[in-house]
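pasting for ref. prot 1 ->
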Amino acid sequence: MYKRPMAYICENGNQRKIKDHMEVVFSHGWTPVSTNILYKNVVDKEVAEDRKELDIMSKVLMRKSRIMFVCGKDITEEMKDEMVYAKSIGLIVVPLSGIVQIEEYLRGDE
């Protein structure tokens, strides 16, 4: 049985930054999921109906996740909405930098 719990990636970066964040999350024992990566070739964010569908898909993935990692320094309205929803369903919401810092401390890398 697969033992890596799912982690929702809340981000607003370019595709390379998102992939970098996902690699960090994976390296810390989580299965990262990002709607911006999973559905980038399926959903057009410029189309209102697609944005609604993306919102629904994001909520489904959040419900299946154990934690939300917030990536980057700039928080957009979309990210804020995701964080509010995550908290409303009891999802743990933490900055990605926090887990990296804790792991470094536990290894003695500080």
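and prot 2 ->
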Amino acid sequence: MSGMENDCPTCGEKVIVPDFRAADCLTATADLREPIPVLPTVVVDESPRRNPFVAILKGIGAFALWLICVVVVLGITGLAWTFGLQVCDTIYPWLVGLSGIALVIGVFVFLPLAAFKKTRGFAGVGFFYVSLAFGATLWVWSLLLTYALWGGFAVLVGLVFLGVGILPMAFLATAFTGHWALFFQLLLVAVAVYGSRVFGCFLLEKSE
């Protein structure tokens, strides 16, 4: 410990008076080196309390919005359904005429061209397009027959299967209602669709 030299008032000798300020400074420095205790943090939830009536009103609003969307979708579906049936009924006679023209061209134009190797590929493409005309006519006819014999629900079930199921549904409707003439006519057109497409692919393979 450091100090200061002073004269003793009794004997007159030099004495060292300790400097307590330095000791206090060292003690304070030692205290600063000690770790300061950390007090635990208390988190106070200051968020406002939710009113239960607000949550109920939000639920009612969400349900009302969902109900409005359902009504709009059903309305659009109904309009599309009615409009779609009207369109099919309107274009069906045109498709029948198109299929007749395709049949004539296929028999009198594409079939003779299939006999020659140079024109065989052209004939194969032609028969493929003929099958498309037959297929469109068959699809619309199947839809109209199913709707006329079994109603809209049967048409909806047939359309659910990517539109392909409308033909089997038409077969079932004509068979269970006893319209066998329509049944065999559908079968004949279906064979024409499949046969012309297979024949066109065969001609394309033979032309290479």
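Residues 85-206 form one domain.
The chain has two domains: 3-33, 85-206.
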